[in-house]
What does this fold into?
Amino acid sequence: MISSTDILRAIIISIFFQSINGLIIGECKEPNEWKTWLNVHRPTAIGEFELVPHYQKIFAGQPFICSKPTGLEVKTVNDLEPSTTGDTFRFTFNEGFLCLNQIIFPKKKKCTDYKIKFCCPT
It folds into this structure.
């Protein structure tokens, strides 16, 4: 029989891993490092976009961005993995993160708010 302690431990582990794991493309090995989370765009009637070229343009030369990231990570602003939201999205190195409301079912659902971070050479 499963004890209430085991159930609580499983819930805590589940919450912990959801809060630290997003969707990652590429990799981030030393001496590269993950930079800070960025969230400039908010969901609109069209969708939610955390675009790599946009960040590289508006934050060029800043220490939390780079022109050639080795990895990108995205998750919701509430620290959930994108796959848990029901959103339909695309996430690529060249574009970044794109979620269009029109391809989510049911149609009246808006994309969740997301944040992105870059892995950059140190």
